[in-house]
Amino acid sequence: MSDDGPLANDLHLLKLERCRWWLLVVVNIFFLVAGQASAVLLGRFYYDQGGNSKWLSTLVQTAAFPILFIPLFLIPSSQEASASSSTPSFKILASVYLFLGVLIAGDNWLYSTGLLYLSASTYSLICASQLAFNAVFSFYLNSQRFTALILNSVVVLSLSAALIAVNDDSDGLSGVSKGKYILGFVCTLGASAIYSLLLSLMQLSFQKVLKKETFSVVLEMQIYTALVATCVSVLGLFASGEWKTLHEEMQSFGQGRASYVLTVVFTAVCWQICSVGVVGLIFIVSSLFSNVISTVGLAVTPIASVIVFHDKMNGVKVIAMLLALWGFASYIYQNYLDDSKARRMQGAGDETRNDSVC
Question: Per the UniProt record, which residue ranges are transmembrane (predicted)?
Answer without folding.
Answer: 21-47, 59-78, 90-111, 123-141, 148-166, 181-202, 223-240, 260-285, 292-310, 316-336
